[in-house]
């Protein structure tokens, strides 16, 4: 046994007392370590929101709202209009408890019940209109050739028009009339203008793509817009899609000063940091845990140069509580349905053919069943409180669904007004939970220190 006092001489009675005290301290330290380990492995997670101070940084329940996506001013809940809110809880939990504190002089809530579902936050968005093929996509069906231009599908007058304009025939992907129907019809593309002086620009439709020397361009509004690099181009279009031209072709169109970058949803890295491209911004990802929990893949990170990185302003930090940004594509496990996240909605991409026009990487896998709301519990007034109501329910059955966002929906049969809202996730002490907690702890250590 480790002894700092081996040179101190004690009588037998003091030695016995010393040994008992020393052993007691070791037992106390060991017990404290076990308690600390227990609290770590079987920790609970609490989320709060105060309607008295809705702008407080201490509020970590996400986006309390009604069915019309409107914040309930002063916590007012109307009959028949549910209160909806989200929390993001990593780890494996056995149960959740919701507690409501009713405002003073507020009517008592009657028959309030809770429903819950778990997935990725953006996958729980309402569904918008289906979206068709991306601009620039080349299609063919029933012997006809088409290009998607300004959101519309435009047919080439005949095959000779395709060849005269120089479009590579092997770049046209086979599609069905049903798939093409998700883009409205545009004007037919007729024979290109030919001028012996070669001073008049050929009639290329918008969204035509060219490769001139080592640079790729897309025609937009009568301008040639360059891609910042081939690497960026390949996150949006196929390499065989571009019409190869000589440098003299540049005289026909003005060149845009605003180059294009990477496709939405692309994960890029610069230095030690990772970012996701969304629109005209790049969104920094705060840590490896967020990266993994969002369903991203390490092998799909694209390192970028200083010029490529400087093309973008930085947007909001992507944290665990952040929804997937615009441009992310989901794929459901059960039915292989594809969805594109855009402007607060998820939009069906009705086929893999359409989805692949938007996506040059792996989709984020989701479960269609995670959209179903599960009955959770009914609220009852707590015995020792006049204004607090609570309910508790199991959540372990939701663990099978990907994503860490829990969306709750509370519905009552009377108007009421809330002061505070609390959600606490708890872990049951069991062998399975212990095993999962140890594996989870190991994975977090490996993510943070092994890469």
CATH topology of the largest domain: Jelly Rolls
Give me the number of helical elements. Answer: 8
Number of structural units classed as domains = 3
Q: Let me know the largest β-sheet.
A: 6 strands, antiparallel
| CATH top level label of the largest domain | Mainly Beta
- For the secondary structure, the number of strands is 28
Beta fraction of the residues? 25-35%
Shape: globular
CATH structural architecture of the largest domain:
Sandwich
Radius of gyration using CA atoms only = 30 Å
What proportion of the residues is helical, as a percent range?
10-25%
Low-confidence segments, ≥5 residues, pLDDT <50?
none
Helix/strand structural class: alpha+beta
What is the typical, i.e. mean, pLDDT?
88
End-to-end Cα distance = 39 Å
3D architecture notes:
The longest helix has 30 residues, at 12-41. The protein has 451 residues and is α+β, with helices and mostly antiparallel strands. The strands form 6 sheets. Strands 1, 3, 5, 25, 26 and 28 form a 6-stranded antiparallel sheet that branches. A 5-stranded antiparallel sheet has the order 2-4-27-6-24, with no helix packed on it. It has a 5-stranded mixed sheet with strand order 7-22-21-20-23. Helix content is 18%, strand content 29%. It has 3 domains: 46-112 and 379-449, Jelly Rolls (Sandwich); 138-252, no CATH class; 268-360, no CATH class.
């Amino acid at each position: 046994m480790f002894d700092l006092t081996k040179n101190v001489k004690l009588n037998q009675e003091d030695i016995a007392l010393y040994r008992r005290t020393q052993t007691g301290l070791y037992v106390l330290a060991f017990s404290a370590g076990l308690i600390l380990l227990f609290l770590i492995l079987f920790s609970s997670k609490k989320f709060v929101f105060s309607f008295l101070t809705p702008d407080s940084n201490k509020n970590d329940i996400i986006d309390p709202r009604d069915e019309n996506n409107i914040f309930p001013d002063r916590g007012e809940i109307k009959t028949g209009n549910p209160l909806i809110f989200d929390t993001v809880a990593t780890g494996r939990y056995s149960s959740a408890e919701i507690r409501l504190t009713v405002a003073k002089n507020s009517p008592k809530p009657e028959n309030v019940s809770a429903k819950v579902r778990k997935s990725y936050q953006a996958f729980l968005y309402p569904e918008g209109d289906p979206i068709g093929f991306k601009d620039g996509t080349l299609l063919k069906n029933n012997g006809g050739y088409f290009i998607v231009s300004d959101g519309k599908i435009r047919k080439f007058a005949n095959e000779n028009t395709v060849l005269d304009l120089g479009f590579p025939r092997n770049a046209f992907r086979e599609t069905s009339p049903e798939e093409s129907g998700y883009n409205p019809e545009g004007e037919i593309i007729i024979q290109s203008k030919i001028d012996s002086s070669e001073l008049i620009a050929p009639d290329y439709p918008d969204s035509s793509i060219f490769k001139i020397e080592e640079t790729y361009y897309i025609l937009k509004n009568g301008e040639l817009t360059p891609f910042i690099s081939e690497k960026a181009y390949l996150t949006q279009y196929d390499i065989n899609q571009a019409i190869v031209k000589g440098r003299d072709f540049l005289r026909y169109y003005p060149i845009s000063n605003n180059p294009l970058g990477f496709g939405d949803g692309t994960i890029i890295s610069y230095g030690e940091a990772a970012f996701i491209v969304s629109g005209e911004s790049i969104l920094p990802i705060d840590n490896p845990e967020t990266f993994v929990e969002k369903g991203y893949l390490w092998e799909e990170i694209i390192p970028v140069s200083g010029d490529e990185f400087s093309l973008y302003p930085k947007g909001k930090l992507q944290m665990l509580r952040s929804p997937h940004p615009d441009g992310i594509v989901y794929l459901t496990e059960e039915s292989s349905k594809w969805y594109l996240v855009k402007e607060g909605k998820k939009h069906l991409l009705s086929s893999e053919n359409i989805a692949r026009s938007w996506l040059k990487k792996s989709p984020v896998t989701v479960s269609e069943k995670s959209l179903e709301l599960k009955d959770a519990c009914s609220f009852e007034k707590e015995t020792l409180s006049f204004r607090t109501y609570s309910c508790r329910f199991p959540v372990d059955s939701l663990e099978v669904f990907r994503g860490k966002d829990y969306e709750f929906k509370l519905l009552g049969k009377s108007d009421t007004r809330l002061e505070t809202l609390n959600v606490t996730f708890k872990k049951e002490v069991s062998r399975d939970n212990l095993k999962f907690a140890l594996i989870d702890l190991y994975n977090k250590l490996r993510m943070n220190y092994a890469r």
